[in-house]
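Case 401 in the screening queue. Each case pairs one protein sequence with one candidate compound; here the compound is pyridoxal-5'-phosphate. For every case the pipeline is the same: read the inputs, emit a complex structure as tokens, and attach any notable structural observations.

Predict complex for case 401.
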Amino acid sequence: MSQMMQNYIDEAEKVLLHTYNRYRVVFEKGDGVYLYDTDGKKYLDFVAGIAVFALGYNNKEYNDALKEQIDKIIHTSNYYYNLPAIEAAKKLKKISGMDRVFFTNSGAEAIEGAIKTARKYGYLKDKRTDHEIIAMNHSFHGRTMGALSVTGNPHYRDAFEPMIGNIKFAELNDFDSVMRQVTDKTCAIIFETVQGEGGIYPATEEFMRKVRELCDERDILMILDEIQCGMGRTGEMFAWQHYGVKPDVMTTAKALGCGVPVGAFMMTEKVGAHSLVAGDHGTTYGGNPLACAAICKVIDLFDAMNVLDNVKKVGSYLEECLDALAGEFPCIETRRGVGLMQGLVMDRPVGDVINKAMDKGLVLINAGPNIIRFVPSLIITRENVDNMIAILRESIQEVCS
Ligand SMILES: *Cc1c(COP(=O)(O)O)cnc(C)c1O
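Case 401 output:
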């Protein structure tokens, strides 16, 4: 590392609150699936800003659309209508089959909105104010107090107790564990269709179906968090679309704006008509013209670039290659995931492997201590996968031998 980059890092550590143990690199620009640091070193990127830059860095059409919107108007209050928000909501409805959209600034804020929607839905039914929400162990829904309250990882929560009340935890893919938590006060069940931070665990068909049936029977809202697994990552626009069941409420963010901070929670007409009304919820920035122009262009480009086809094709190739790698090394326990959301489970902490890969010009990230996570941009090629595997193999060899 150059003295210059070292200086940047030293400066950063004097001014930024230390809430991340950052990798020792300063990225300056990106192009396609490559990142460049301030020394000009090139990296193949299999993180994409954690499942954000679905279309790769520096996509010209995307950049031009944003520049055009900047020259028109960047922001106006949600007390007024704006064209990009109308267009973005229409496009989101089309790709999700949901009916009503509320734009947020982040994933966590989309979760907050989904929680408020569920509580209000319950409240309007029976006027009780002690409704319960069932969430899953090992889940991750964000760092704000509401989102943290449904995040099934005590390590993130403990120092910040008390959480918001009446949250119960069950086990993903264990329907009996959900049944044990259901009461007449349950207003919602929330989970990620594919758990991300918790270790890349996809929900099973059976679990999805049974939760859906339970929710229908008892008028409980099924809330799916698609913030990481949605927007094409698994080969469908939203991961739940693989299963033939539909949530009542869903959240999206990360790749939704491909880098412009924006998220959304969405719901069916029925929930929309029996939950939040004027005065119940709001945001200053959420769904501003710049953010919504990004969403519009992203959704158009998914179509124009046949992104879903690429995810299906290259995703299954990535699976094959990771499975083969797992066969080569006893220190790799297994591979799990769907499409371009994959995890390689090792028998030890993966930090050393990730650092070695970084030295060799490959950006990877973990999901929990023992899992290497692969959430690249959705435009990667088989050749990119081959190059990634070659560097990863070397890195694992050095750590595991
Ligand atoms: C990243 C993430 C969030 C939180 O999103 P932020 O934009 O970081 O607030 C919530 N849920 C899931 C599944 C995520 O991956």
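Case 401 observations:
- The two ends are 26 Å apart (CA to CA).
- The pocket of pyridoxal-5'-phosphate is lined by residues 106-108, 111, 140-142, 192, 196, 225, 227-228, 253-254 (CB under 6 Å).
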